[in-house]
Amino acid sequence: MFGDASLTLFLGLFGLFSVWPLVFIINNAFKPLNEIFIFPPKLFVQSPTLTNFQDLFIIIGNSWIPMSRYLFNTVFLTAAGTLSSVIIGSMAAFPLAKYVFPGSKTMSKMIVYSLMFNGTVTALPNYVIMSKLHLIDTYWAVILPAAASTLGLFLMQNFMVQIPDALIEAAKMDGANELTIFWKVMMPLSKSAWITLIILSFQNLWGTTGGGFIYTEKLKPISYALSQIVNAGVARTGVASAVTLIMLIVPIVVFVISQSNVISTMATSGIKE
Fold this sequence. Notes:
Helix content is 70%, strand content 0%. It is an all-alpha fold.
């Protein structure tokens, strides 16, 4: 009992430590400039104000590209990139997880090796490929690299491996083809895996600025527009705090809504092979 209490206390302390940055960001968004620059910084706001948000909306209102256009670009890129990542990753993971064919083991190893390279390393190859396909300065330059993410493929493959082959064999005996098995058997049983993939892809794409792929102003996402506001100087430190909170709200809401499905019990837990 003492061990359980100690573990709970230990995890509780780490939880408080983890939530501290979030509390600081929320309070900073409502601080006047004199409180933001105070040293040592205080965690909680003393004189709450909406000035930072009011200044942000004034700046947004003077933008020569409507903020609604930036928001549409972000929503479209995030939705299209996330959806394509889940569908393509799942369809590629199914044969790798459940069938043996020439080169399947080599492909699986290459997927694992690719996880060692972060986005900075693959940025140049991605740019070259998009340039050869004449997709630079289009939505596809952001969507296609997201769809080809090996993290989603790795996640789905490792989850689908756990699904008993007996279910696939039973579906084949009922006359189901491979596509039907994928949509009606594998995807429902992999729900927790692809919801986790949705969260990861969403968080990655929501904050994208288009990088070196998008140059036309009307195609840029909202994170780019807000970053330009933040980079205007020290006078906009309060506005920057409001921007940080706004960009943080949506991913947190998506995670809170979806997190109950991330850790779920496998529907096939009672099947023995």
